[in-house]
């Protein structure tokens, strides 16, 4: 029997187009997930900063020092 000419692994053009679409869709999905995670990190950092502010205010209140005294300590 004669073998057909061409590569055994040759795929139809539409199959390649479908694979390109699939990979592109996956890239879009991953980029959306990445953006979501970056937004999550941003929110967590904001929450962390807010907690730090609360701790500083609590420590300042508990110290009994005036605002001017605390600022002088920080600036020195």
Write the topology of this structure.
Blueprint: H1 13-63, H2 67-75
Give your account of this protein's structure.
The protein has 76 residues and is mostly helical. It has one domain (13-75). Helix content is 79%, strand content 0%. It contains two helices and no strands. The model has no long low-confidence stretch (mean pLDDT 89).
Unreliable stretches: none
Specify the structural class: mainly alpha
Number of helices: 2
Number of domains: 1
Helix content: over 70%
Order of helices and strands: HH
Q: Sketch the major β-sheet.
A: none
What's the number of extended β-strand segments?
Answer: 0
Compute the average pLDDT: 89
For the termini, the CA-CA separation is: 93 Å
Shape assignment: rod-shaped
Give Rg in angstroms.
Answer: 30 Å
Instruction: Give the amount of beta strand, in percent.
Output: under 5%
What descriptive keywords fit this protein?
79% helix, 0% strand, 76 residues, mainly alpha
In short:
This protein has 76 residues and is mainly α. It has helices at 13-63, 67-75.
């Amino acid at each position: 029997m004669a073998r057909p000419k061409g590569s055994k692994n040759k795929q139809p053009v539409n199959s390649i187009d479908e694979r390109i679409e699939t990979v592109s869709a996956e890239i879009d999905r991953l980029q959306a997930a990445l953006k979501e995670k970056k937004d999550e990190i941003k929110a967590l950092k904001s929450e962390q900063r807010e907690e730090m502010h609360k701790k500083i205010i609590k420590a300042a209140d508990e110290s009994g020092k005036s605002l001017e005294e605390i600022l002088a300590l920080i600036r020195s």
